[in-house]
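hiii so um. not sure if this is the right channel but i have a protein structure encoded as tokens and i wanna go backwards to a sequence. like what aa goes where. can anyone help
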């Protein structure tokens, strides 16, 4: 049941300069992408908070544009909000500029700073009205740079967009991901060791350079709808990751779980908050090719077990990891911080 806060608030949502919110909303209306706003932040409006998202400025050209991309922060975006009520940013790329260019309360997520600490974050984030992270493993690092009371907000995905279909009868394996903490070398090595008798068809959706993928079909781009279809068709989704504390891979993990697929994923700090080993999927040590191969083979050889895991995974997402649940937590954070 929806809980409405007793005190109404308003918040303006900041996205980084690469995000066109208007275009995203249009694509959502056409059924192409999940949630009306990226990361489901539009759903905060369901909890007594008036929400306005501003379109980011167009990218600069030439040397200024290259500098802006290198800084990876939305400085011009932040400076257009000098006065008013609280600002909500998904991550520090828009949150840090907002803190430093306005006097408004800034509620910001923190992702990359946990793995790549830098002086500007240590200067700015302690000044934010509130800082949250999607993993409890991130909280000590945030305290370490001076953030007094960082908050854990579980990641959510649009479980109305990522939905199950009748269980697949094939033996396909899917890998996904573009960020720098993806360990596609381990993924490719693991799936290339699968027993030929399993007849597994392996796909890897990534824009990253994976070198020689062996018998893996690399797909450089998939729309959200196409990716959803790939999840549904996969017997196993496998996500190999380099060690990190910001739970890289959690979006793909939850999307696959919402599609009722079992996932084999690297056991990084914080990831156990989202997946239960042997119940909704399998956890394997970072860089352990043999362990990943064994876990994938186990699911391919026992489809019934994989289907049961997938159904439990779907129920877990519905109960704990939707953008609706995430929005409820953010709305409460907005109310208490502002």
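sure thing!! here u go:
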């Amino acid at each position: 049941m929806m809980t409405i806060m007793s005190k109404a608030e308003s918040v303006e949502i900041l996205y980084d300069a690469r995000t066109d919110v208007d275009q995203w909303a249009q694509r959502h209306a056409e059924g192409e992408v999940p949630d009306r706003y990226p990361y489901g932040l539009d759903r905060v409006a369901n909890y007594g908070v008036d929400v306005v998202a501003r379109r980011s400025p167009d990218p600069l050209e030439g040397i200024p544009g290259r500098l802006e991309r290198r800084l990876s922060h939305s400085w011009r975006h932040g400076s257009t909000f000098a006065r008013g009520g609280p600002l909500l940013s998904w991550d520090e790329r828009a949150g840090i500029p907002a803190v430093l260019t306005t006097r408004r309360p800034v509620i910001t997520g923190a992702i990359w700073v946990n793995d790549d600490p830098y002086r500007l974050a240590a200067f700015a984030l302690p000044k934010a009205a509130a800082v949250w992270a999607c993993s409890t493993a991130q909280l000590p690092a945030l305290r370490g740079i001076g953030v007094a009371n960082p908050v854990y907000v579980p990641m959510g995905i649009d479980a109305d967009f990522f939905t199950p279909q009748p269980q697949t009868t094939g033996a396909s394996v899917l890998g996904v991901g573009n960020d720098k903490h993806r360990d596609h070398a381990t993924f490719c090595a693991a799936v290339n060791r699968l027993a030929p008798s399993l007849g597994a068809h392996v796909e890897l959706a990534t824009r990253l350079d994976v070198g020689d993928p062996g018998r893996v079909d690399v797909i450089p781009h998939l729309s959200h709808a196409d990716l959803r279809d790939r999840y549904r068709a996969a017997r196993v989704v496998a996500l190999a990751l380099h060690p990190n504390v910001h739970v890289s891979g959690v979006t793909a993990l939850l999307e696959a779980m919402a599609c009722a697929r079992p996932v084999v994923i690297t056991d990084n700090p914080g990831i156990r908050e989202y997946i239960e080993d042997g119940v909704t999927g399998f956890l394997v040590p970072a860089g352990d090719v043999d362990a990943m191969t064994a876990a994938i083979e186990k699911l391919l050889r026992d489809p019934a077990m994989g289907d049961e895991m997938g159904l439990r995974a779907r129920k877990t997402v519905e109960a704990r990891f939707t953008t609706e649940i995430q929005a409820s937590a953010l709305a409460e954070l907005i109310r208490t911080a502002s």
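oh and The chain has twelve helices and twelve strands.
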